[in-house]
Each structure stands twice: as structure tokens, then as C-alpha cells.
């Protein structure tokens, strides 16, 4: 299921990269697209990227429940936002 989540986020980032004007500001919303900011930053470093999550994040200890590679991808994705 993680592969499907990655593929969905990658497809969204690629579509957004193709459509966004040079230097545009984009807003990525919610945990469904948590990987998009990092993927989009790699594709289009000229964009101003914001991420907003409607759902409160769990305490940091809950990240330890995730496999290390998935936790790292989620955090890297979110840190791709400005």
C-alpha cells in the first residue's frame, strides 16, 4: 500500500510541476499529499511551496511506530515546503 501512496504523490507532484507557472506559489493540502512538497521541490525548485494539514499530528513518539524508511520519506516530503 505504501507503493501506491508514493505513486499517487509522485503523479500529483509531476502534474503540478507541469502546470505551475514559473515562480508560482502552490499550496498542498493534507496528509494524503505529504510527499508532494519534497518531490515537487526536486522537480521545480523555483516554486514557493506551502503545506497545510487539516488533521493534527500525533506526538513524535508515534513516528517510531513507522518503518524508518517511511518515516524518513514523510518527514523529507514535508520539509520540502517553504
Automatic annotation (TrEMBL):
Pfam families tied to this protein: Glyco_transf_20
SUPFAM superfamilies in alphabetical order: UDP-Glycosyltransferase/glycogen phosphorylase
Biological processes, Gene Ontology terms: trehalose biosynthetic process
MF terms in GO: alpha,alpha-trehalose-phosphate synthase (UDP-forming) activity
Cited Gene3D superfamilies: Glycogen Phosphorylase B
Top-level taxon: Bacteria
PANTHER family associated with the record: BCDNA.GH08860, TREHALOSE-6-PHOSPHATE SYNTHASE
Similarity comment: family membership: Belongs to the glycosyltransferase 20 family.
Name of this protein: Trehalose-6-phosphate synthase
Species the sequence originates in: Streptomyces microflavus
